[in-house]
Specification:
Elements lengths: L6 H14 L3 H8 L3 H7 L8 H15 L11 H11 L3
Helix pairs in contact: 2-3
C-alpha cells in the first residue's frame, strides 16, 4: 500500500483512484460508510483502519475487474526470482 514508505501520498493516490473509478457515493453504499467519512479517511490527515482500506481496495478491484496477486499467489519460481532481485548487492 505504501508508496516509498509515504502513507500520506498513498492515501491521496487511493482517493484519486476511487474518484476515477467507483466514486465516493457508490463506494459509500458498497462499504456501508458515509461518503464524507471515506473522504476524510483518504485525506492527507486521515487514519483509515486496515479493514476500511481492505474494503476500499475490494470495491476498486471489483470496479476495475482486476485481481491483485499477493507474493504467495505467484509461482514459486517467479517468487524466488523476485526475492533474489530484491536483495541488496
Amino acid at each position: 500500500m505504501f508508496v516509498s514508505d509515504d502513507p500520506e501520498s498513498s492515501k491521496l493516490i487511493l482517493r484519486d483512484l476511487v474518484n476515477s473509478t467507483v466514486g465516493f457515493e457508490a463506494l459509500a453504499e458498497e462499504v456501508h460508510k458515509p461518503a464524507k467519512s471515506l473522504h476524510r479517511m483518504l485525506s492527507h490527515q486521515g487514519n483509515p483502519t486496515m479493514s476500511n482500506i481492505s474494503a476500499v481496495f475490494a470495491a476498486v478491484k471489483r470496479q476495475l475487474t482486476v485481481d491483485v496477486l499477493t507474493p504467495n499467489a505467484l509461482p514459486v519460481s517467479f517468487r524466488a526470482k523476485v526475492i533474489a532481485e530484491a536483495r541488496p548487492i
